[in-house]
Write a sequence for this structure.
């Protein structure tokens, strides 16, 4: 079953509402968090970190499929993708022939992700409040991914946020083995 949505923002709201109905804690990250903490830019997917066991994920998958999202049967059996060494499942909504929206759902299973989830704050977004990762955690996530777009996003967040908790950034950068990347980002911005 395919779903037709008007925008990425609507997909975000739908997925957040599914999390809320299923009792799943979430934190919005990725390009949407950059729009909130940095300089708005186009983004073409939804990225979340969630705290959910397999039973909660099954409820989440069922609710998503009811709204027309595609969920791979592999995720239902417990298989996970990994991005920057973080486990992830993916949903897809098809908009038009060959085009769709990916929803990347990272599973909070590491100490860093537990810290990240504890620091999420409600932020205004499109006439709604969403739980969003902190600017510091967004920077750390972007340093882990380390793509050219991520490095630009880091500069935008640093520019817009001004003073950040550099002790927190350095602590986690050391633990995540990305300290040199952080120092370079702080020097150039």
């Amino acid at each position: 079953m395919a779903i037709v949505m008007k925008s990425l923002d609507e997909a975000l709201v739908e997925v957040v509402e599914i999390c809320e109905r299923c009792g799943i804690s979430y934190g919005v990250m990725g390009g949407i968090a950059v729009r909130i903490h940095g300089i708005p830019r186009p983004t073409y997917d939804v990225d979340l970190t969630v705290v959910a066991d397999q039973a909660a994920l099954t409820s989440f998958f069922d609710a998503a499929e009811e709204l027309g999202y595609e969920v791979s049967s592999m995720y239902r059996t417990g298989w996970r993708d990994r991005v920057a060494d973080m486990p992830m499942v993916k949903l897809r909504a098809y908009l038009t022939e060959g085009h769709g929206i990916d929803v990347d759902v990272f599973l909070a299973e590491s100490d860093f992700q537990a810290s990240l989830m504890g620091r999420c704050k409600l932020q205004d977004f499109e006439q709604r409040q969403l739980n969003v990762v902190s600017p510091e955690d967004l920077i750390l996530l972007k340093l882990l991914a380390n793509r050219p777009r991520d490095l630009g996003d880091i500069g935008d967040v640093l520019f817009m946020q001004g003073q950040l908790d550099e002790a927190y950034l350095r602590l986690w950068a050391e633990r995540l083995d990305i300290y040199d990347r952080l120092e370079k980002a702080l020097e150039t911005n």
Summary: Residues 8-22 form the longest helix (15 residues). The longest strand covers residues 86-96.
